[in-house]
Amino acid sequence: DPSTTVALELSNQTVDSGIAAAAARLKCGYSIVGNVVYVGPVETTDWLRTTIEQREAAVAKNDTTISEGRKFALFDRKMIHWQDLDTPREILQSIADRYDLEIVGSDSVPHDLWASATIPYATAAESLSIVLVQLNLDFEWNSDGTRVRLLPYRLPALIEKRYPPRKSQTAAATLAAWLKEAPHLQGYVDNNEIVVAARVEDHERLSGRSAIVARQPSGTSEPVPLRRRKFTLRVENVPVRAVMRELEKSGISFEYDEHAFKEAKADLQTPISMDVKGVDADEFLRKLFAPVRVEFTIDDRLVRLMPAGS
User: Fold this and answer.
1) E-strand spans in the chain?
2) Is the same domain home to 135 and 193?
3) How far apart are the first and last CA of the chain?
4) pLDDT number for residue 85
5) Cβ atoms of residues 39 and 28 within 8 Å
């Protein structure tokens, strides 16, 4: 019940920790999808982002018959809003209208009346999945991305990615350490690389744990200015904001105007891939922010961000 009041006492906690505490009090799970916090049954929240990742991968893959223009349209972020007493079928149709989609199988959508809500700046797959998961439904694209067919919800397949071993460790030792920390992971060693099959959130944790190294001069415990550091990073399809959070743990701060970013459609949740070793701060930040068309200035340990051309 979205009207349920939850009383919490939090001190020196992150927003993410606060959301987790509120969800736990309700005996629910939660998933952060772009600008949306979805709270619901654990069996759906644990898999929502992986479901979305696979629906978007089906659009983005090179061998698809979906045109480049259609791909761009489906990944365009739009605001979806519905009023009190709108039905799920009406909400799904409004999403379909925004993305020029035809829905097949809407007879499977149960009748209900929903409270007013907004999904801000979401892709087609995100909007559809956030609504459908509440109805125990899923969808699949047709061959040209102009139609979706509704299906009963099923757990998505795990996503497979490859990782280098931790520094000064063999791949087998790194995998053993990961499995000890997270026994639910599935993985094996192949040619001194670790192949892991997991959910999106698990891959983000693995990338953050094994990839970012911001080396500081030896003999100092205080964070040093960015321009005296060297950076090493290897990640695949990780949101820019997730990389920023890892950097913040090493004493780096970011300053930016969220409203200006939304106006410029500069989305820090955009996934990127990087592979750099021992580069300086300027090169590292250029490679990090160029894909989202964001410029930066560096002041000691503070990075000021602004949309390109502003």
Assistant:
1) 29-33, 36-40, 78-82, 102-104, 117-122, 137-141, 147-152, 159-163, 186-190, 193-198, 213-215, 230-239, 253-255, 271-280, 294-299, 302-307
2) no
3) 43
4) 92
5) yes
Tell me the C-alpha distance between 184 and 117, whole Å.
34
Domain that holds residue 261: 159-307
Q: For residue range 153-173, list pLDDT tens digits in order.
A: 998 888 888 888 888 889 899
What is the per-residue pLDDT across 184-230, written as a single tens digit (0 to 9) for each? 788 899 888 899 888 888 888 887 643 343 333 433 444 567 888 88
Q: What is the number of structural domains in the chain?
A: 2
Tell me the DSSP string of 164-202: PPPTTS-HHHHHHHHHHH-TT-EEEEETTEEEEEE-HHH
* 73/188 same-domain check: no
- HSE, side-chain direction, 13 A CA sphere, residue 60: 13
The pLDDT value given to residue 213: 39
The answer to whether 240 and 290 are in contact (CB under 8 A) is no
200 and 115, same domain (yes or no): no
DSSP state of 161: E
Q: Are residues 59 and 82 in the same domain?
A: yes
Residue 78 lies in a domain: yes
CA atoms within 13 A on the CB side of 196: 28
